[in-house]
Amino acid sequence: MSNRIGETFAKAKAENRSVLVGCMPAGFPTVDHSIEQMIAMHEAGCDVIEVELPYSDPVMDGPVIQKASDIALANGVRTRDTLKIIDAVSSAGATVVLMTYWNPIEKYGVDAFARDLAAAGATGLITPDLIPDEAAEWIAASDAHRIDRTFLVAPSSTDERIAMTLANCRGFVYATALMGVTGARKTVSSQAPELVQRIRAADPEMPVGVGLGVGNGQQAAEVAAFADGVIVGSALIRCVLDADDRGSALSNLRALSAELADGVRRR
After folding, report:
1. Which letter does DSSP use for residue 18 in this model?
2. Does 50 participate in catalysis according to the annotation?
3. Which one, of 264, 217, 210, lies nearest residue 236 by Cα?
4. Residue 62 above 90 pLDDT?
């Protein structure tokens, strides 16, 4: 299947750089604000926008993303709003993937969700709490509606587990660089390069996105040296959380996105 996320990774590879994936919760702090923020990230250099569907019981998200998601939920964001946001951001020219826990999809209806996600313009879905062993319904629905599937692997994953996960991914695989929740850190995980090597040994063709911990351009460059994609969330979200007003939030987002975009080009 041809897909825009695959084309994005191929273009970056041809340019001898990594893909920059910038993450932001839908509806944070409001629907209109989040659309404006994601478009600003895209314009400033994020190759892919990872829209996070706010969820009340996250298992992977650290305190920054949890706080932003709580704000979005308190302001009334719902799944339909998230689809509206994806439509607006993809219409602005961004390559968009959605990250969500499984419960909202199950409640929505698996096939209907895949259908509406594709109609909104998303290229794929990241499912942090859905493993391939239990994903038969999603695999069928994503095949039917041409949605890419991104599952996660971790430093604790066995070689057999990595191979099985890659066999069920399409678009890219998400390599969690650390054992723990999300959040920018002072140093890049030493486990990440080894995990990427193990993934490439199992499937040399599958693009690898590395997440958890990147917060600045230098760290982005360090990860870009061994990964196909650099995934950044908490540091970008903090640009909004720490801002005094809407204008400064956008200015901070643009500045950090540009810094990170420069970093992935210094591999």
Report:
1. P
2. yes
3. 217
4. no
